[in-house]
What does this fold into?
Amino acid sequence: MPIYNTLTVNAFTKVYIWKIEESENDLAKGIQLTSHCQDRFDGMKSEIHRRGFLSIRHLMAKAGYVDADLYYDELGKPHLKDGNYISITHSNEFTGIIISTSDEVGIDIERQREKILRIAHKFTPIEEYRTIANSEALIRKLTIVWGCKESLYKIYAEKGLSFLQHIDIKDFSLSAETTTGQVFYKGKYTNFDIQFIEFEGFTCVYALRLVDS
It folds into this structure.
């Protein structure tokens, strides 16, 4: 079962991406779930969700972890018991994780879809992108912006945080594959480094939390 891609972000941080092509039975081989995760798995009605759930455990194995090394807090944010940082994402046939020994991290994979044009006003000031005349480029850019905000939301993990009101993404070019973001919430600024890649009509965004200012 091949891994789709492995990205070295820095000396302490790696991204692992899986393309789900295997059957559920094949993905289940060699995977031992905790009772909590088994209950979650058993409650999944969608086969693609179950396959994604299992593929994430294979990604964890690539990074040297098993399911029992993972736990979730009261807000549903995943943590590793050894104190390293992890974030998890699943979109259709792709799953991904990012693991860091040094920084809080977030990751998001999204399919590039026209639907994002209709919902963009809910998560970003759409007037910022009116100069982009090409609809394909606009879809790509908005998908990156959404992925950036989703990644930062996963790191920050506080109730009441608004994509539109509290998370700002610095403008970027599609070719740059990097930008920065900032959360301003409850009188506190938090800054983030962000990178993104595109493949097979999907966008993967991953972010690292910087020292608060």
Observations:
- Residues 108-209 form a domain with the Ribosomal Protein L22; Chain A fold (CATH 3.90.470.20).
- DSSP finds six helices and eleven strands in the chain.
- The chain has a mean pLDDT of 94.
